[in-house]
Specification:
Length: about 400
């Protein structure tokens, strides 16, 4: 008969999940270590090394050192369907998916969670730098996704698509610690991962260069690079209403400021060629291979149908910096369902559109078909397909996929 709560830890072979497992043991949980193998194709890795095999070995060694059961689970088929195929589909139409957010929503806290429940686990745990809270609403518990104590490592953004059901089964044992403290604990415990460098690759794929990865299915195709002048009158027409709260703006003003700008080749001049618009994303600077421009050149829009990249000169180009964005209503996800906005409602939050980006004050306005997010300060490189996440007092309230 089970007396201790059972938790399955996703041992990735890194120091964070290793210490997460140790802390849970210290807290009296029955701990099982499980390694997720999500990728088979090593043809796009940067070197001949086999990252998943090395990580799996390290995870097994950690489990042995802690004296906990260990097993590996092959989720590569589901990973291919839910993450890799989705990434290719999104990039092929000029959108910028976030595989780490998808991996957490679709793999770690879905497929992996289901596998853990089959082992009669009460919880799953990961080495994420975030924290879990709980409040009561009408007598029922509501789970909170809170920022990690280490502001440099806070990974709540990567978990911004989790549901209440997923959070109810999740534990984040290292969320209250600083990275240096985690490494110190690993060293004290004699864990093989104590000095191991953090992984830099795509979620569970390894040391992969994204262009090499995309070229597996998205083949090169020569197209035009168009430079758009920052003096173009179309941009000058977009004015932020001064001193007028966003929630009082007309529908026309909201659409003008929040929806992506439509570009045509005649708006600018051809300055070079590229190898495929689907390899680029809004805000990108590297890889254009265009010299002699003085200021750095940035991608401000990609048209994969016409295979055209539109660019702007300098970080202050109005095409690169926008005050608002749009989330389709069916793409808005509220972790705190009790705070969900309904058509005609608005609320003030702080928001970010990428990991480690400083939070910026924003007004969320729920329209009939879309959620509008208007920032107090212009945001650089808002790309379709990205996730915007909104917070209050260190708690991630919700997120959405940018139109």
């Amino acid at each position: 008969m089970k007396t201790k709560p059972r938790v399955v830890v996703g041992l990735s072979g890194g120091v964070d999940s290793s210490v997460a497992a140790k802390l849970l043991l210290d807290q009296g949980y029955e701990v099982i270590g499980m390694f997720m193998k999500n990728w088979h194709d090593e043809s796009v890795t940067l070197s001949n090394e086999c990252p998943w095999m090395e990580d799996s070995t390290d995870a097994m060694l950690v489990a042995q050192a802690l004296g906990i059961p260990f097993q590996a689970i092959d989720l590569s088929e589901e990973y291919q369907k839910r993450i890799v195929d989705y990434m290719f589909a999104e990039y092929s139409v000029g959108r910028t998916p976030n595989p780490d957010i998808l991996c957490n929503r679709e793999i770690k806290f879905d497929i992996f969670l289901q596998a853990a429940l089959k082992l009669k686990a009460d919880f799953v745990a990961t080495g994420h730098y975030c924290q879990k809270g709980e409040v009561l609403h009408q007598g029922a518990p509501i789970y909170q996704l809170l920022a990690g104590a280490d502001t440099n490592k806070d990974q709540s953004y990567f978990l911004c698509q989790l549901s209440q059901e997923q959070l109810s089964k999740a534990l984040f044992p290292i969320g209250h610690l600083q990275k240096a403290e985690v490494r110190s604990l690993a060293k004290q415990a004699g864990l093989v991962t104590a000095e191991k460098k953090d992984s830099q690759g795509l979620c569970f794929i390894g040391k992969v260069r994204l262009p090499d990865f995309l070229q597996q299915q998205l083949k090169p195709k020569t197209g035009k690079i168009i430079q758009i002048s920052d003096e173009l009158s179309a941009y000058r027409d977009i004015q932020i209403p001064s001193g007028i709260p966003p929630q009082t703006w007309s529908q026309e003003q909201l659409d003008l400021i929040c929806r992506p700008i439509a570009y045509l080749p005649e708006y600018g001049k051809e300055i070079a060629t590229h190898r495929g618009a689907h390899y680029f994303t809004v805000g990108q600077r590297k890889g254009l291979q265009v010299g002699g421009t003085g200021k750095p050149l940035f991608v401000i829009h990609t048209d994969t149908q016409r295979n055209i990249i539109y660019t702007g000169l300098g970080e202050e180009h109005p095409g690169l910096n926008r005050y608002g964005l749009v989330v389709p209503r069916n793409q808005a996800h509220w972790i705190r369902e009790d705070l969900k906005l309904h058509p005609g409602q608005f609320a003030s939050y702080s928001a970010r559109i990428r990991y480690r980006q400083p939070l910026t004050k924003a007004t969320l306005i729920q329209g009939k078909d879309h959620l509008y997010v208007v920032f107090e300060q212009a945001q650089k490189g808002i790309a379709p397909g990205q996730f915007v996440a909104w917070y209050t007092n260190g708690e991630c309230i919700g997120s959405g996929t940018i139109l």
